[in-house]
Amino acid sequence: MTRVWEWNRPVTVREVLEDLQKERSIAYTTVMTVLDNLHQKGWVRREAEGRAYRYEAVSTRAAYSAALMNEAWSASDNPAAALVAFFGMMSPEQRYALRDAVRMVQGDEPAEPAPAPPPGGRAEREPPVPPEQAEEGEADAGEVPAAGSGDPGR
């Protein structure tokens, strides 16, 4: 899938094979089987071109990653604690990117991207949501807990 996502266009088994062979020895039938399996699972669509197929990703790598995160989060018996633990594992840069993503989803996307936090430093905290904008009992969705903060038992 990595090759299909990277190239962002329909690809043939031969193209993927030739690219993979730059790194390691691999058989044509192995690549063909993997692409066929991906097609059967619904990850790629294919269109006949002569005697071969061209394969194209059904969704983006970002959508795939989001689905994996959602699946893992949904499987937790304590989703809030899982999120706190996940945020605690994030670097300051990742938490900053998360804040930007939350702003975009909420519809209050900044006119221009916010500057990146200083390397190795902590990003400034986002101001809390004013009480009149927050629903009762709702945490500020734009705030991401720092590592070790929050009550994982909640």
From TrEMBL:
InterPro entries according to UniProt: BlaI_family, WH-like_DNA-bd_sf, WH_DNA-bd_sf
Keyword DNA-binding assigned: yes
Gene3D superfamilies tied to this protein: 6.10.140.850, Winged helix-like DNA-binding domain superfamily/Winged helix DNA-binding domain
GO molecular function list: DNA binding
Keywords in alphabetical order: DNA-binding, Transcription, Transcription regulation
Short name of one Pfam family: Penicillinase_R
GO terms of biological process kind: negative regulation of DNA-templated transcription
Keyword DNA-binding belongs to the record: yes
Span list, region Disordered: 104-154
Family indicated by similarity: Belongs to the BlaI transcriptional regulatory family.
Name under which the protein is recorded: CopY family transcriptional repressor
Species the sequence originates in: Streptomyces paromomycinus
The organism's taxonomic lineage, starting at the top: Bacteria, Bacillati, Actinomycetota, Actinomycetes, Kitasatosporales
